[in-house]
Amino acid sequence: MSQLVPFLTEDPLPPSRNGRSPLRWVVAALGVVALMVATVWVIGTVRGLAPEQGVSVVPGLPVTVVVDSGDSLGTLAANLAEVGVVGSATSFLATAELDERATRIGPGVYALTTGMDPAAVIVAMLDPASRAAPLVLPEGLRLDETLRITSDRTQIPLADLAAAVADSVPLGLPEWSNGRAEGFLFPASYEVLPGRDAEEVLGGMVRRFTIASDEVKLERGAKRIGRTPYEVLIIASLVQAEAAPSDFRKVARVIYNRLEQGMKLQFDSTVNYALKTDTFFLTPDMLATQSPYNTFVIEGLPPTPINSPGQEAIEAALDPAGGDWLYFVTVDPDTLTTRFTSDYAQFLVWKQKFRDTYAATAAPIAP
After folding, report:
1. Residue 139, C-beta contacts closer than 8 angstroms, at least 6 positions apart
2. Which of 21, 32, 305, 354 could bond to 237 as cystine, CB 3.0-4.6 Å?
3. DSSP character for 182?
4. What are the residues whose beta carbons fall under 8 Å from the beta carbon of 9, sequence distance 6 or more?
5. Reported pTM
6. What gap in Å lies between CA 12 and CA 211, rounded to an integer?
7. Cα pseudo-dihedral 279, 282, 287, 289, rounded to 10
8. Three-state DSSP class for 102?
């Protein structure tokens, strides 16, 4: 206790040596800052909980709404509110949370009107009638056909699309493509979004090819069968051009059998590609066309794919059917009914029967 006595006194305490310490000023300043931050957070939270002020719009006016790939429902809600389709983003999100169908709204261009009920917006955006028609590219289109259809549907000048194909680097083609776009503009349905240029549109088709390629494991499968991925894609394009899907794997087997035996492929589709024609009936002059794509003249595969094959044709090229067939004839071009044989004499019989039956009704050769 004797050590405490000097401090138990009514005399004033001596001044603190820390009264002007910088540390105290720093602590005090940090406290003020923390108080300000807390105040701002409280105000923001209260505002967030308060009802959102709706936007006054004239109802019934036509509005186009664009949904990009990857847009969230929050982004969509903000866009709808901005153009006056709904009164507020909050009202749309609240409705969307109660209607799981809202998650099925995909990328595209939608024709809506101002002043719609949020529930009606969801119904309208899921109705194909409210959505701009997509760009549809069927399997087996040649590069020039793909560019023409794309130009017609998107209004992108054909010259711009051709230039994008010529400078193919920005398209994102695989390294093994040799810089050639033929075969890589994948057949599928694409949303036509405004403001897209040629490189963006065609690059989307190449990305779609990459997705299909990964799904079928094209590069790994090509290595497994002793072919390059590019060779497999060329074979897939021949398969796509020559028969119906039900016969794809058989046609692929004929191709491999002929290549292994050193036979020329002699496919009409390659002559049609070289001449930019489309006919079942090739004349002797056409068959003699000097072109690296004419497989009646050259040995082996043509230098590039002759069209954009679909995923099923690529799968057939990677996994051909088992058989010793060397020949096939499409005996009915309307149904694409095709017969296969390893007997050349039988092949000639079927071929002549086809010519006798359908030559008289053949359509003119398309230039």
Report:
1. 187, 240, 307, 308, 309, 310, 312, 313
2. 305
3. T
4. none
5. 0.77
6. 84
7. -50
8. helix
Residue boundaries of the structural domains of the chain: 62-130, 135-215, 244-361
Can you count the helices (H) and strands (E) in the chain? 14, 6
Q: What is the pLDDT along the chain (367 residues), one digit of tens a residue?
A: 333 333 333 444 344 444 445 555 444 555 544 555 444 343 344 334 444 444 567 898 999 899 987 899 999 999 999 999 999 999 999 999 999 999 999 888 999 999 999 999 999 999 999 998 899 999 999 999 999 999 999 999 999 999 999 988 899 999 999 999 999 999 999 988 888 999 999 999 999 999 999 999 999 999 999 999 999 999 999 999 999 999 999 999 999 999 999 999 999 999 999 999 998 888 999 999 999 999 999 999 999 999 999 999 999 999 999 999 999 998 887 787 899 999 999 999 998 888 877 765 555 444 3
Torsion angle of alpha carbons 200, 202, 207, 209, nearest 10°? 170
| Helix, coil or strand: residue 327 | strand
d(CA 195, CA 262): 50
Going by the DSSP 8-state scheme, the letter that residue 85 receives in this structure is: S
Given a contact cutoff of 8 angstroms between Cβ atoms, the answer to whether 229 and 176 are in contact is yes
For residue 53, CA distances in Å to 48, 76, 90, 121 come to 11, 18, 10, 19
DSSP bridge partners of 66:
109
Neighbouring residues of 182: CB distance < 8 A, sequence distance ≥ 6? 142, 143, 304, 305, 306, 307, 308
Contact between 273 and 304 under an 8 Å Cβ cutoff? The reply is: no
CATH top class, domain 62-130: alpha beta
- CA 250 vs CA 93, 109, 301: distances in Å: 53, 42, 17
Strands (E), 9-76: 62-67
